[in-house]
From TrEMBL, chains A, B:
One term of GO molecular function: monooxygenase activity
Ranges of residues in domain ABM: 2-87
InterPro entries documented for this protein: ABM_dom (IPR007138), Dimeric_a/b-barrel (IPR011008)
Gene3D superfamilies referenced in this protein's UniProt entry, alphabetically: 3.30.70.100
Protein name: Antibiotic biosynthesis monooxygenase
Keyword Cell inner membrane: no
Species of the source: Chloroflexus aurantiacus (strain ATCC 29366 / DSM 635 / J-10-fl)
Keywords linked to the UniProt accession: Monooxygenase, Oxidoreductase
């Protein structure tokens, strides 16, 4: 499996709008086992995204999906910074559901 | 919802053993919507754990479960350091399955 843990900051006051775009864009991505969008309670602009994919290839292919391309286009103006980006290799746990 | 993102380091050579303990301990925790244990591909001792719970209370209660207490007791000697610990508020996404 392939995982990503990332933290981004929305432009001030735009976190909810950016979250809505991210969640909408992630609704149906083949090979996506988990995609969680979360607020950082200590920073009103910060968003955490944690992802699990069945393979790096599935993740790469998702970037070409129209829904994801739309989300990137709509979301990019609302992103102030990409603070953290970690690649992981998920090995187990709970809630790594069937791929979308 | 309540989320956690954490990074720990196993004692050298013990990552796989620690991961096995973590995954085993997380098999049945009421209110746990997602619990993903992952290797850090850049650090042979590093482990990422990302969690989603239906509430902070469910998470807190899980720490008293026999299975979790056993995992803590068995795992603690294999933990070299707790590097990162972030609380989050998950708001949406995919793979936030039904609670265990």
């Amino acid at each position: 499996m392939y995982g990503l843990i990332g933290k981004m900051r929305a432009t001030p006051g735009q976190r909810d709008a950016l979250i809505a775009i991210l969640v909408e864009g992630a609704s149906s991505m083949p090979g996506c086992l988990s995609y969680v969008v979360a607020q950082d309670p200590k920073d009103p602009d910060a968003i955490w995204i944690t992802e699990v994919w069945d393979s790096p290839e599935s993740h790469k292919a998702s970037l070409s999906l129209p829904s994801v391309q739309d989300a990137i286009a709509c979301g990019r103006p609302l992103i102030a910074a990409l603070d953290e980006h970690h690649e992981t290799v998920p090995v187990g746990g709970h809630g790594i559901g069937a791929a979308a």
